[in-house]
Write a structure and sequence with these properties.
There is one protein chain. The chain has 197 residues and is an alpha/beta fold. It has a single domain, classed as 3-Layer(aba) Sandwich (Rossmann fold). The chain contains six helices and five strands, in the order βαβαβαβαβαα. β3, α3 and β4 form a beta-alpha-beta unit. The longest helix is centred in the C-terminal third of the chain and has 21 residues. It starts with a strand and ends in a 21-residue tail after the last helix. The C terminus is likely disordered.
Length: 197
């Protein structure tokens, strides 16, 4: 199972990013967790750059390819002025026209109990995009500022919350996969007899 994680923060020492790195550390061997690192390179969303038949900017194409190739997304975002960071909202805007987003499992992880407005707004945006919001809300994993990914993964309580999130994501991935096609039984061919004259 391939899980793509997205941090809504561009800070070098972001708690949200460290939390997602810890997610990779606690993941079981059957789950591949990759952190998307191109958020800052995405241009401002412009429908004129995304018209039918056009090739989107290279950074947008790479972002979309990573999303399409992932079985699920996990997003961890800070809250700025009671809202979602503009860089993260911009990234989601570039995905609105991507058909593979329909019913794709997406989980939200919240690193701060005080960040509630952004989580609600982010969940509403994702529901509007018709994704499958895993759990219907966000996983609260309260991390102290300055904690590293290894320290988070070593904390039994925090690690348990992250594993719980991944377990729910794994179930959502399994449920979203189409059932394997059942091969049809071979049909016997009975030619219509030709009447002799």
């Amino acid at each position: 199972m391939r899980v793509l994680t997205v941090s809504g923060s561009l800070r070098g020492q972001s708690t949200n990013t460290e939390l997602l790195r810890a997610l990779r550390l606690v993941a079981s061997s059957d789950i591949s967790v990759t952190l998307f690192e191109g958020l800052a390179s995405l241009p401002a969303f412009n429908p004129d750059l995304d018209a039918e038949g056009m090739t989107p900017p290279t950074s947008v194409e790479e972002w979309r390819n990573q999303v399409v190739n992932a079985h699920a997304l996990v997003i961890c975002s800070p809250e700025y002025a009671h809202g979602v960071p503009g860089s993260l909202k911009n990234a989601l805007d570039w995905l609105v026209s991507v058909p593979e987003m329909l019913a794709k499992p997406v989980a939200l992880v919240n690193a701060s109990p005080r960040s509630t407005h952004a989580q609600v707004s982010l969940a509403e945006t994702l529901r509007t995009m018709s994704v499958h919001l895993v759990g219907g809300t966000s996983w609260l994993v309260p991390v102290q500022r300055g904690m590293t990914s290894s320290a988070i993964a070593a904390d039994l309580t925090l690690a348990a919350s992250l594993r719980s999130c991944l377990a729910a994501v794994a179930v959502a991935i399994s449920n979203s996969r189409p059932a394997p096609a059942v091969p049809e039984a071979p049909r016997s061919f009975h030619p219509t007899p030709v009447e002799s004259a």
